[in-house]
Design a protein that fits this description.
CATH class of the largest domain: Alpha Beta
CATH superfamily of the largest domain: Type I PLP-dependent aspartate aminotransferase-like (Major domain)
Strand order of the largest sheet: 6-12-11-10-9-7-8
Strand content: 15-25%
Shape: globular
Length: about 425
């Protein structure tokens, strides 16, 4: 075991965070004169030097459009761009890199499925199953498609422990079910949903399954072949990559059966004045000049996470999560939502503190250099369901430490005591 020496001279075991923190330049800045404690990772992650360098290196050394040129710069850009696709395919264990479609983000990827597959396959009387915990990105597209097709939306509710209610799900699935679209991990409750069981039951009725993996891809090992999902989406910016890039995984034959989502350059085979034929996968769904640098940097982020090991990341975050909950439950005013450890759950905690508005808590914590999220986290229906107008959310990643949690808890207690003194 490797040990490090702290400022106090005490030696302690070196954690994963101790190893990786030097790779993240922003973690070493100050906010309001205090060392930054970044606990808003469910909103977006910070970026390591390797990812920042990948962006800079592309623009400095081989900036060029992909697929369209035979000169050296274009060939180098194309190789890097397609190489990143292969890395993503391996990261989620897709059968082929053709099953990976680049998108601006998970929102665009879900809309791709909704407008390409949904409008072509759903009709009046069909049913789409979602959950009350879905992010707006996995809710609004299906609302729009249901309005256009006449399909009906059904919603899985929560257990008393505020987890996916599988019994209720079983009661909803039937011959009318054509699609189940569900988050792998709730960005508010932190529960990890039983995707394999959800997929297995849906497939018994011939329904397709889309998995929103935005909160799982950065934190858990993913195997789309083992999950047997039909589609899976993720956003790069939550997994150490830049903003403006994400991906859709889809089964090859299913993607081939779907019509294009956007039309234009790159996604065509032959174009005539009155009709066109389309390129093979994955390019059929990638119209126009793509986010080349961002895709290459996503590949660098995948390399970075893979080199650490997703099992190692999940194990370390589980340790941090247990520690965070042990500290939070000691504050009597705090109410935490979602399942509690030792249940396997995401490395985040959404909570309220009596009559103190989460925005006020977040503002006070920011004065101490601590960044958390406050609001409805793009899950307004869920907040109505749990009878909370909004919540505060502290979300962890593998570069966070127990010492940062201690700093957060101490500042949170001070903030709560300050507001309590005002209200009393």
């Amino acid at each position: 075991m490797t040990f490090i020496q702290t400022k106090s001279g005490i030696h302690k075991p070196q954690t994963l965070a101790d190893t990786v923190r030097p790779d993240f330049p922003i973690l070493h800045r100050e906010v309001h004169g205090k060392p930054l404690v970044y606990l808003d990772n469910a909103a977006t992650s910070q970026k390591p030097h390797a990812v920042i360098h990948a962006l800079e290196h592309y623009y400095s050394h081989y900036n060029s459009n992909v697929h369209r040129g035979v000169h050296t710069l274009s060939s180098e850009a194309t190789d890097a761009y397609e190489g990143a696709r292969e890395k993503i395919a391996k990261f989620v264990n897709a059968a082929s890199s053709q099953e990976i479609i680049y998108a601006r983000n998970a929102t665009e990827a879900i809309n791709l499925v909704a407008y390409s597959w949904g409008l072509s396959n759903l009709q009046r009387g069909d049913e789409v199953i979602l959950t009350v915990m879905e992010h707006h990105s996995n809710l609004i597209p299906w609302q729009l498609v249901a309005q256009k097709t006449g399909a009906r939306l059904q919603f899985v509710q929560l257990t008393p422990e505020e987890e996916f209610d599988f019994g209720h799900y079983q009661s909803l699935v039937n011959e009318k079910t054509k699609l189940v679209s569900v988050s792998h991990v709730s960005n508010t409750l932190g529960c990890i949903n039983p995707i394999k069981d959800i997929v297995g039951l849906a497939h018994q009725y011939g329904a397709k399954v889309l998995v929103d993996a935005c909160q799982s891809a950065p934190h858990l090992p993913l195997d789309v072949q083992d999950l047997d999902c039909d589609w899976l989406v993720a956003s790069g910016h939550k997994m150490c990559a830049p903003t403006g890039i994400g991906f859709l995984y889809g089964k090859l034959n299913l993607l081939r059966s779907m019509p294009p989502f956007l039309g234009g350059g790159e996604m065509i085979a032959d174009v005539f004045l009155e009709n066109s034929t389309y390129a093979d996968l994955p390019h059929k769904f990638e119209a126009g000049t793509p986010a080349i640098a961002e895709a290459i940097a996503l590949g660098a982020a995948v390399d970075y996470l893979t080199n650490i090991g997703m099992d190692k990341i999940h194990a370390y975050e589980a340790e941090l999560t247990t520690y965070l909950f042990e500290k939070l439950i000691q504050i009597p005013q705090v109410k935490i939502y979602g399942p509690k450890p030792p249940k396997d759950r995401a490395a985040l905690a959404s909570f309220t503190s009596g009559d103190v508005h989460p925005h006020d808590l977040s503002t006070m914590l920011d004065q101490s250099g601590i960044a958390i999220r406050a609001g409805h986290h793009c899950t307004q229906p869920l907040h109505r369901f749990i009878k909370a107008q909004s919540t505060a959310r502290a979300s962890l990643y593998f570069y966070n430490t127990k010492e940062e949690i201690d700093t957060f808890i101490a500042s949170l207690q001070e903030s709560i005591e300050f507001f309590d003194s005002i209200f009393s």
